[in-house]
Design a protein that fits this description.
By secondary structure, this protein is an all-alpha fold. It has a domain of 77 residues. 56% of the residues lie in helices and 0% in strands. The chain is built from five helices and no strands. Helix 2 packs antiparallel against helix 3, helix 2 runs parallel beside helix 4 and helix 3 packs antiparallel against helix 4. It is flat, with a radius of gyration of 23 Å.
Length: 140
């Protein structure tokens, strides 16, 4: 029994380069900006331990950086997506909430540990997380 399947053609480097160039012509910068924001939100969620199996990857500094990077890109994301940008607001808000919870936990405390919240001093203008500078506050 003989196989009549032709051998698979391996593209040459020139063919690969031409295909890559053809794909680049289709890509818009706006698409890359939006995809970057989505990637940052997803990676931030992983670093917050929100993704199943990522609990051991928790890194508040990485979460904070992801949030700040998305915030920097946000005006461009809104311009690119228009009303559809609202679809990214909820995941970003969840990431910000997770970061806030992480920032409140003492070093080494496991997620979900119960601790009485600190009360702000009268006239301090914010709680302990906000006064530490680690809480994202809209417009600031």
């Amino acid at each position: 029994m003989s196989d009549s399947v032709p051998p698979s053609h391996q593209p040459t480097e020139e063919e690969l380069r031409a295909a890559y160039e053809a794909e680049l012509k289709k890509v818009r910068v706006e698409d890359v900006v939006v995809q970057t924001a989505v990637s940052l939100i997803n990676l931030g969620a992983r670093k917050a331990g929100l993704a199943p199996g990522s609990e051991d990857e928790r890194d508040p500094d990485q979460v904070h950086l992801a949030i700040e990077a998305v915030r920097a890109l946000w005006p461009l994301v809104e311009a690119a997506l228009g009303p559809d940008a609202a679809k990214l607001r909820e995941p970003l808000s969840q990431l910000q909430m997770a970061y806030t919870q992480m920032a409140r936990q003492p070093a080494g405390e496991e997620p979900g540990g119960q601790q009485a919240p600190e009360q702000p001093e009268p006239g301090s203008g914010g709680g302990p997380a906000q006064s530490s500078g680690r809480l994202w506050v809209p417009g600031q």
